[in-house]
Amino acid sequence: MKMLERLREFENQYVYVKWALGGDYGKLLSVGDDYIEFAVIDTETMEYRETIIILASLLLEVSIGGADVARIIAEVSSKMSMHE
Fold this sequence. Notes:
Layout (H helix, E strand, L loop, with lengths): L2 H5 L5 E7 L2 E10 L3 E8 L4 E9 L3 E5 L3 H17 L1
Antiparallel strand pairs: 1-2, 1-5, 2-3, 3-4
């Protein structure tokens, strides 16, 4: 199974993405045939900073779970419940 096929299962979830020029936490918005669309989250303010499109050949790592990703999910969730 190719990486992008596997990533399609995780669309609209929070992940850590590392690519050739950097790495950030954010939300995987969509997966195309040769790219991903990724909304970067500023971990200090928990606000969306920017949306980027990354060419698949530049992807090095995508972390779907783990303590840091869980922390981001918890902080985003608590911020959402505060605004409701």
